[in-house]
Amino acid sequence: MNTKANAVRKAPFAGQKGQELVVELAHDLRSPLTSIMFLAESMQLGQSGPISEAQRRQLGLIRSAALCLCSMASDVLDLSRRGESLTDCEPTPFSITDVFRGVRDLARPLAEEKGLDLRFLAPELEERIGHDRAIARVLLNLTTNALKYTDHGFVEVAARETSDNRVEFSVRDTGPGIDALPGAPSVRGDFSSAGLGLGLCRKFVAAMGGELAVTTHPQGGTKFSFEIELPPAPVFA
Predict the structure, then answer these.
(1) Residue-wise pLDDT tens digits, 168-227
(2) Distance CA 174, CA 223 (A)
(3) Is this model's pTM higher than 0.70 or not?
(4) Residue 85 placed within a domain
(5) For the sheet containing 166-173, what is the strand order?
(6) What per-residue confidence (pLDDT) applies to 191?
(7) What domain range includes position 25?
(8) From CA 92, how far away is CA 72, in angstroms rounded?
(9) Structurally, how many domains does the chain consist of?
(10) Is residue 146 part of a domain?
């Protein structure tokens, strides 16, 4: 495509008005995608009549695909707000186990369809104070990315205490490694070659006072991790 034709193709999305259009489209996509997720889940639960095991798995994949698209739309909206929409409120008590359960429920259909073991390892002291929605969003993005590029083995989501007030989260897979993926020559900098979601994950982690780190090797898997301050939640008698 020549330069003039390329400029014409990009013109509707250029400048401030173009950015506003992209944000508006992302916002409008979320409602129908949420409806698809709700309907797929209702059918999975047999609310529209009996279904076979194969149909249950297929509906799970439909729900997961709609979730991923909805998450991408949310990523666009959050990037337009500099990734601070889930961390601009006061931290609140939450359960790491509950966060893991939500991620597992949404990611499990894809793991089952690919025959992958999806593991979750929570720390002993798992009642914490922090931004649970932001943590869940980061872990879900990292987990779905790991499942997407892993064909054999497992994806492990873990949290471990590094001190009384700090917790390290990690998502590890047995995939080919980011360096081995087509079109992904590097994992340094903004991780831009690995997808929009990772750029947003980095912003969320930074907003929580941490830094997203990655270790990857060709044919040796990939591990994303971040450490943030999460004081233990008070225990009331």
Answers:
(1) 999 999 998 876 555 443 444 333 334 557 877 888 899 899 999 999 988 889 999 999
(2) 9
(3) yes
(4) no
(5) 117-121, 154-163, 166-173, 221-229, 213-217
(6) 38
(7) 3-80
(8) 26
(9) 2
(10) yes
Burial class (CB in 10 A: 0-12, 13-18, 19+), 39: middle
Pull the structure tokens for residue 220: 């040796």
In this structure, is residue 164 part of a structural domain? Answer: yes
- 46 and 126 housed in the same domain: no
**How far is Cα 218 from Cα 221, in angstroms, rounded to an integer?**
7
User: In Å, what is the CA distance from 205 to each residue of 173, 227, 234?
Assistant: 20, 9, 24
3-state DSSP helix/strand/coil % of the chain, to nearest 5 = 50, 20, 30
The predicted-structure confidence for 77-108, as pLDDT tens digits, reads as follows 766 665 555 666 789 999 999 999 989 988 88
The amino acid at 80: S
Helices (H), the chain: 3-10, 15-44, 53-80, 96-114, 132-149, 196-207
Average pLDDT of every residue of the chain = 80
